[in-house]
Amino acid sequence: MATVSSLWSYTLQLPHDPRAPGIARVTLRTVLAAHGLTELTPTAELLASEFLANAHLHTKGSYGLRLSSTEPNGLYVAVWGSDPRLPPGFGDATDAPPEAAADAENGRGLHLVRACADAWGASAPPELAGSEGGKLLWVECQRGDLR
């Protein structure tokens, strides 16, 4: 009889294609449903969508989505790409994010992250340390602590 591990991780490599963020969101919903974490879907999908859209806009090549379980009932969502620049205000949790103009079409992503995620951060993992550099933006969401 096969056993199912309570810890899991999925990685999805995405081409620089305008359909890729949508495919990643469908994958996220499918993974969360398969692992009984559907209550995290709205928050995780919102945050992943923000990161995926930015990766598509600011990365020339492929980018990716990583989903992992966290103990005891959480989710780690990360998006990586080749653009090494951090979004304004993202590098330091004590800095207030810049205010977006009322009619601006961008500039609200960090506000969403800070309002919805239980933890967030950025890093430059070794696998992205090629000639172009790169970054990984991540969030954690916990079951029972939805905002």
Distinctive features:
single chain, alpha+beta, five-stranded antiparallel β-sheet, 24% strand, 5 strands, 147 residues
Overview of the molecule:
- Keywords: ATP-binding, Nucleotide-binding.
- By secondary structure, this protein is α+β, with helices and mostly antiparallel strands.
- Helices cover about 30% and strands about 25% of the residues.
- It has helices spanning about 20-35, 40-60, 110-115; strands at about 10-15, 65-70, 75-80, 120-125, 135-140.
- Strands 1-2-3-5-4 form a 5-stranded antiparallel β-sheet, covered by helices on one side.
- Strand 2 and strand 3 form a beta hairpin.
- Helix 2 (about 40-60) packs antiparallel against helix 3 (about 110-115).
Structural class: alpha+beta
Subunit organisation of the chains: single chain
The biggest beta sheet reads: 5 strands, antiparallel
* Count of β-strands: 5
Number of distinct helices = 3
What letter string, H or E per element, gives the SSE order?
Answer: EHHEEHEE
Describe the global form: globular
How big a fraction of the residues is strand? 15-25%
End-to-end Cα distance: 39 Å
Mean pLDDT: 82
Helix content: 25-40%
Radius of gyration: 15 Å
The low-pLDDT segments are none
Protein name: ATP-binding protein
Organism: Streptomyces vastus
GO molecular function, one term: ATP binding
Keywords: ATP-binding, Nucleotide-binding
